[in-house]
Amino acid sequence: MYYLPKAMSTESSYSRRGGDGPKIERVADRYDISELGDEVVARWLGENGYDQQSLRDLADHVNRRIIEAAVASSTHLLDGEAANIYRLLSGDDDDVTAGMQTEVRQRLKHDGIDVERLEADLITYQSVYNYCKDHRNVSRSSSETTNNPASSLTHMRKIAGRLQAIVENNLAQWIKHNVIDGGSYEVNIEIWVTCQDCGARRSPKRLIDSGGCQCASDSELSGADADGDETKPIDTGSAHRLKN
């Protein structure tokens, strides 16, 4: 039994505009994603236990949830697979080729998914902004993230984590298609900040904790991770191995 969105049109093409109410609420209703609007607001403001997220991160989150809901009844998604499908459909990653997009669309169609409808339902960060500001009447200062180092560091880790996932996915594809020899590979994404005056290298957290470089001590040439370990930079929190 395949998932069919509510009130799905029989037209051959779908508009990305129109309808009653904001798009986030329309797609939440279409795919039975309960309380999506409240979650978006909470994540944007950093309330109800959520870390504060950027508009782009929120759009990515909503689109992953849309994809998960759209394919849930027709196929079993592995952990992280919805994010990869979204990456391929959106084509935002420079590594995504037209052939890869065609392949994922054909796979979804084979599973009974209306791909054209699905792609029309994906939202942009502007949709998130308009929803929060115009329909929910909430806003936040543009300086909040800058003035909240913990939020900034969390955002850096998420970006590093996405980059790590992209590299791992490409390694797996290279092994699969015999571009490189199979074996055991480890992907590590690390972030260091180097002072151009003295050459000292620190993690972003260590730099924040020390209030800058200061260029006063040769004993602080190593970085620190989020837990204060002065031997490690900020990274994705874990290293993953790929084996043939």
Fold and architecture overview:
This protein is mainly α and 244 residues long. It folds into 2 domains: 23-135, no CATH class; 149-237, no CATH class. It contains 9 helices and 6 strands; from the N terminus they run H-H-H-H-H-H-H-H-E-E-E-E-H-E-E. Strands 1-6 form a two-stranded antiparallel sheet. A two-stranded antiparallel ribbon has the order 2-5. Strands 3-4 form a two-stranded antiparallel ribbon. Mean pLDDT is 78; it is low at 1-18, 217-232 and 237-244.
Q: What is the fold's blueprint, element by element?
A:
Blueprint: H1 23-30, H2 36-45, H3 55-71, H4 81-90, H5 98-110, H6 115-121, H7 125-135, H8 149-176, E1 184-187, E2 190-191, E3 193-194, E4 201-202, H9 204-209, E5 234-235, E6 240-243
Antiparallel strand pairs: 1-6, 2-5, 3-4
Helix pairs in contact: 3-4, 3-7
Q: Which properties best describe this structure?
A:
two-stranded antiparallel ribbon; disordered C terminus; single chain; 244 residues; flat; 2 domains; mainly alpha; disordered N terminus
Brief digest:
The chain has nine helices and six strands, in the order H-H-H-H-H-H-H-H-E-E-E-E-H-E-E. The radius of gyration is 21 Å and the shape is flat. The N terminus and C terminus are likely disordered.
**Secondary-structure element order, N to C:** HHHHHHHHEEEEHEE
- What would the principal axes of the Cα set say about the shape? flat
Class derived from helix and strand content: mainly alpha
Order of strands side by side in the largest beta sheet? 1-6
Oligomer: single chain
Specify the biggest β-sheet. 2 strands, antiparallel
Q: β content, as a range?
A: 5-15%
Percent helix, as a range, is 40-55%
Gyration radius, rounded? 21 Å
> Helix segment count?
9
Number of strands: 6
- Average pLDDT over all residues: 78
Q: Which blocks of ≥5 consecutive residues have pLDDT under 50?
A: 1-18, 217-232, 237-244
Cα separation of the termini: 35 Å
Number of domains: 2
